[in-house]
Amino acid sequence: MTAASPEPIDLWEYRKAEIPPEAIRSEDAELLWRRYGQRVAVEFPSPRTEGQWTLTAQGWVGFLPVSPTLALRLRPRVPLQNLFRMLEVAYHLKSFELLPGLTDCHSLEEFYERLANVLARRILTRSRKGFYREYVGREDRLAAIRGRIDLGRALRAPWRVHLDCRFEEHTADVEENRILRWTLDRIRRNATCRRPEVRQTVRTAFGRLHGLVTPQSFTALDCRDRSYTRLNDDYRPLHALCRFFLEHTGPSHESGDHQNLPFLVDMASLFELYVAEWLRENLPAPYVVTTQEPFDLGSEGRLRFQMDLVLYDHTGGTPLAVLDTKYKPVQEPSTADVAQVVAYAEALGSMEAVLLYPIRLERPLTFQVGRIRVRTLGFELSGDLNEAGDQLLAQLVAMDAQLGRRGASPGIESALVAS
Which pLDDT tens digit goes with each residue over 81-133? Predict the structure, then answer.
């Protein structure tokens, strides 16, 4: 946003905000409704709304530049310090020692800028050392022989002066660097990054890659599960940061020629990812948790279940429980939520199904659906996150007598005591 732009409108998660009709232009509201209606619910002025605009953030937080005259700041109901810690754990940022003092940020915009500055500076450091290069096979028509001649083409057109050659080129135009370029391009077009010195650092880093690598679009998934060697191991934290930005800086299909891309965090996805990573770090052996585990329905695979979290006893590969995260501020599950998690448990052959909410439940429920036992548990995000995680582990211990028979309970309890 420029100095002449109006102050962003603050919205809190799942809390209706009534805005005077003169504060938002009709064309801006229609643009918001059409483009971001799934992220912000829009009710137009009417007798029902007493002539006011009514906006409600739908579980997304961040900065949303709708137009040059309308911007929204979507605030989380989770304390900012806890949100930053969730992002650190979910994206393995803390393990790279990238972010000293990050949790001292006072807003999501400052958090975004701090990360953008870290990424740009690290890319500049790598540029001074030399970007990672690989030998890549090329084909070209050259005046001088390079590599091997394509004899078939040469014999079919002997009158040609230039020869078709196949050769290997040591180039920096590889995927590792293309991911960096694409991410920097999106950051520099983002309205969240406003400090001139940070924007200049991002532009400088982008310039180092601009003429060196081919423009190519990437998603956050392209930054995961990559292999590294001693020659490019320092790209690991760079790609971790790229994953963060690509996941939260506007969907690629909406970017087009927009000069200002949004920075939006899907809190439901972050909650799921954070719980998964917290459990991975704290579950004692031999217990493991998997995420987004698929289960195909039918032989053709056109229908598929996608389980949020599955808890396994790794020694036997037995699914002990299916956990479905629900980022909803409710004390009791809906019928649809119960039906969903029961179907997941039945598909995997687990006797336990858990609905996990981001609040402390006043009266957790336990009930039977056929042979599946369903429980509601809480992972409270408003207080101490490690304490909430420890409480979840304790609930997992008490959840299933089978865990105790396998000797898991002492192991998990000892982990709780150690923490």
Answer: 899 889 888 887 766 655 555 666 788 888 888 889 989 999 999 999 999 99
Which long-range contacts does 210-215 make (Cβ < 8 Å, 24+ apart)? 210/181, 212/131, 212/172, 212/173, 212/177, 213/172, 213/173, 213/174, 213/177, 213/178, 213/181, 214/173, 214/178, 215/178, 215/181, 215/182, 215/185
List the structure tokens of 385. 């996150």
- Global pTM reads 0.77
Whether the pLDDT of residue 3 is over 80: the answer is no
Q: Report the DSSP beta bridge partners of residue 56.
A: 41
The predicted-structure confidence for 261-287, as pLDDT tens digits, reads as follows 788 889 999 999 999 999 998 888 778
Q: Which helix (H) or strand (E) holds 57?
A: strand 53-57
Query: How many angstroms separate the first and last alpha carbons of the chain?
Result: 44
Which residues on neighbouring strands pair with residue 325, listed in sequence order? 356
Burial of 4 (C-beta count, 10 Å sphere; 0-12/13-18/19+): exposed
Kindly state the greatest CA–CA separation across the chain. Answer: 86
Cα 66 from Cα 262, distance rounded (Å)? 8
